Amino acid sequence: MSYPEHKVDNIHVATEVFKCFEKHKDNFTDFTVNVGDTKFNCHKFVLSSCSGFFEALMRTDMREKSESSCTIEGISPEIFGLILDVIYKGSEVLDEENMLEMWHASNQLQIKFLVVDCENVVKERINLQNYWEIFTDAKLLDSIDVTTRVKEFMVNNFSEILESNVFMQLSLDDLKFILNHNNFLFETDFSVQSVLKWTCSDDSYLAATPKKCLSSTDMVKTIFDRLKPSRSAVDVVTLDQDNITLRRSHLGELLTVLPLQDTTNACLAKLMNNRFVLSNFDAATLVNQIAATRFDAGETKSFNEKTNENQTFTNGFIFNSDSTQSTENKPSKTTRDRVGRYCLYGAVLVMACMVAIVIYMIITSVFPTSCVFLQRSAVEYSQKIIPQ
Fold first, then answer.
1. Is residue 264 exposed (0-12), middle (13-18) or buried (19+ Cβ within 10 Å)?
2. d(Cα 210, Cα 205) in Å, to the nearest integer?
3. Are strands 317-320 and 311-314 parallel, antiparallel or unpaired?
4. Are residues 79 and 67 in contact, defined by beta-carbon separation less than 8 angstroms?
5. Could you give the CA distance from residue 197 to residue 194 in angstroms, rounded to a whole number?
6. C-alpha torsion sign, points 45, 49, 55, 60
7. How many Cβ atoms are within 10 Å of 132's Cβ, its own excluded?
8. Across residues 221-250, what is the average pLDDT?
9. Do 190 and 262 contact (CB within 8 A), yes or no?
């Protein structure tokens, strides 16, 4: 005889089990957990079933197992009480005030399901007031999911991050992640300024507005003043000289992440005149390549129009001039190459003549008799071949 399949309501069963736990929570306890000055009477089976920490404790022949008691450090009695409420009652106790402490405690006690719940709550409640604390905790707890979520938050709020003390605390990898993210929609000039600030190479700022590439409604207000070092003692980040030198060594690596071909002429000119860019081989090479490519593509307008400086851009270099040359009067690349080769040939010929003269003078001074004989022979030979 067959019976129809009966589906068990798991939620109902779990609810009833929690009711039983709550009803007999203080009965038949066989283990005591000391947290601070508070003692919690618990059940070995319940603790070891939910916590990897207690499971390992119960499976070993340690003193705590024989004494049926242990002491927990690094967790407050209030937080441990909330954890027991979750285990015994299934209570929803997580909020913005206790989520980070609960997250640390659940990691310490290795309560996997509670770790997942804490991470989900933390990711939902990231804001400008707590994102850096969450980011630091996520790295400490090795939570890749939360770390990535905070980085994405910093991408979307980069203009606010830039003006805060946090920006200078970002690591190289964190900054590269932000600048290279698909949702980082700020203009390249703005990105260049950010890199110069982080590498402590921002001795010359560009007065630009950090514009996103979506629409005018997404434009944020100017950050020219934000880029200047803050005078507030709270916002100032002190970097030692070794740290500054290390950051400047990454200038070329960071500029490589950016689409420098999209920079304005004004920004490119500033980069080419920046002393830290010029002292960094990778950065200087990259910037000059972009400049040379732009010139070859026909973008030969003077930077005077963009930077209000008496400078002209030619073949990847900046030089001063009293007037701006027109594009029509500038020779083509083929013509420049041909003239360069002719100049090289001429220089080689002049050098050869100078070497011959020097050799002749040496021979004349060392062997004067031989030289007189050679001169007479040359005269006689010329008289024979040249008609009178």
1. middle
2. 13
3. antiparallel
4. no
5. 5
6. positive
7. 17
8. 59
9. no
* Two tokens, residue 387: 């008609």
Q: Which of 157, 149, 194 is nearest to 176 (CA)?
A: 194
Of 209-218, 267-276, 300-309, highest mean pLDDT = 267-276
126-137 residue pLDDT tens:
999 999 999 999
For residues 297 and 327, what is the distance between their CA atoms, to the nearest angstrom? 12
- Which of 206, 277, 269 shows the shortest CA–CA distance to 248? 277
pLDDT by residue (tens digit) across 232-244? 333 445 677 888 8
Rg (alpha carbons) of the chain, rounded to whole number: 38
φ and ψ of 32, to 5 deg = -120, 130
Condensed to tens digits (0 to 9), the pLDDT of residues 273-324 reads: 999 999 999 999 999 999 888 876 554 444 434 444 434 333 333 433 333 3
Buried b (16+ CB within 10 A) or exposed e, 332-349: eeeeeeeeeeeeeeeeee
Residues comprising the chain, all counted: 388
CA dist 168 and 50 (Å) reads 41
Once rounded to an integer, what is the mean pLDDT over residues 354-369? 78
Cα dist from 4 to 8, 9, 11, 12, whole Å: 13, 16, 21, 20
DSSP string, 238-281: ---HHHHHHHHHTHHHHHHHS-GGGS-HHHHHHHHH-HHHHH-H
- pTM, whole model, 2 decimals? 0.63
- At 242 the pLDDT is 84
- How many whole angstroms separate alpha carbon 245 and alpha carbon 100? 35
Q: Are 54 and 61 in contact (CB under 8 A)?
A: no
